[in-house]
Amino acid sequence: MLKNSSMKLLGLRGLMEQNLRSQDFHHAFIYGEKLFNLNPQIDKLYTTLVNIIGKTNNWHKLIYLTDQSFKYRIIDKKTHANNKSIAFFEIAKIKYKSSEQ
Prior knowledge:
The protein has helices at about 10-20, 25-40, 45-55, 60-70, 75-100. The protein is globular. Helix 1 (about 10-20) runs antiparallel to helix 2 (about 25-40). Helix content is about 75%, strand content about 0%. It has about 100 residues and is an all-alpha fold.
């Protein structure tokens, strides 16, 4: 399915859903990110990726994904600001804990 260009989106979405069901969030995010890069307008893709990021603590990807979503007008300015501030706060917490040790 992934080799056929007309079925690539469907194949990536299926792989993402399969990995979500098996709770393999790392691979689910990889397929979701590929899907987002091909077509960011897919329904509920942004919210699914944000939920995966929250479980994997990949806050730098949240910043990138939020900026791209705002650029493509998927999210509004308030959501953009909230998600970026959450990401920066979580990154700061991680850096603070690592500097204590």
